[in-house]
Amino acid sequence: MNLLTEPSVEAVAVAAADLVCDLLRRTPAAHLCLAAGGTPRPLYGELTRRAQAGAVSLASARITKLDEWHGLPLEHPATCETDLRQHLLDPLGLPEANYMGFDSLAPDPEAECARVLAAMKERGPFELSILGLGLNGHLGMNEPAEELQRHPHCAELSEVSRNHAMLHDTPNPPTHGLTIGMADLLQSRQVILLVTGSSKQEALQRLLDGPLTTQFPASLLHLHPNCVCVADAAAAS
After folding, report:
1. In which element (H, E) is residue 120 found?
2. N or C: the chain end with fewer CB closer than 10 Å?
3. How far apart are alpha carbons 96 and 132 in whole angstroms?
4. Which of 76, 136, 151, 176 is catalytic?
5. 168 among known catalytic residues
């Protein structure tokens, strides 16, 4: 894992956008796995600015949503769907056919995960996954556990995830989530892990210095041959 330390959240967004744009210039139809939430939001803003200025195009990129809270309507303000649409998909008017995500109200979560897996197999491995680091080391909704799931699955959420900033205004936060699995993420040709804010100091230190363990899923990124962790000074201090 390569660590890039930038002075600010804005500088993290610029550095990560440089990596994304380099990929898209080489592979315009790249298959991207995208996290939602506050950490990648500045990156999506930077990509939107560059695309609107004509410096890069995401029009041919194929986008798969990393995860979703199960039980919240997709249009709920706390969903990953709403976040991605507001901050990337809608501002760029990306083709709906190029986007795929979990249905948060799927009555049969296992069938929904099987549907997403089949669609992923058609698209092929991710060229790039953009991830955030959970306070307990979770990636997407791959929570710390004795065993991790390889492919899309319905996960029971940890207390850390149920207290996620995206859910702060949700009176009854969901207990489960739908997420891409660890094997799918590790098979990405490139991974960008974004880590920002002083609240992530302990998690980043554990990622960099701790052992590889399923009890801290992000630690398995050390096994990836092309993973870049881009952190701001507040997280890396």
Report:
1. helix 109-123
2. C
3. 24
4. 136
5. no
136 as an active site residue: the answer is yes
**Residue tagged 């992923």 (tokens):** 120
Q: Quick check: is 138 catalytic?
A: yes
Catalytic, out of 67, 81, 127, 184: 67
pTM of the model: 0.96
Query: Residue 160: in which H helix or E strand, if any?
Result: helix 159-162
Which of the residues 143, 164, 184, 224 is marked catalytic?
143
Q: What is the pLDDT of residue 138?
A: 97
> What pLDDT score does 169 carry?
86
What is the per-residue pLDDT across 216-234, written as a single tens digit (0 to 9) for each? 999 999 999 999 999 999 9
Instruction: Give the tokens for residue 11.
Output: 């500088």
Name the amino acid, one letter, at 231: A
Catalytic residue among 70, 87, 138, 224: 138
Tens digits of residue pLDDT in 9-42: 999 999 999 999 999 999 999 999 999 999 999 9
Q: Is 146 labeled as catalytic in the residue annotation?
A: no
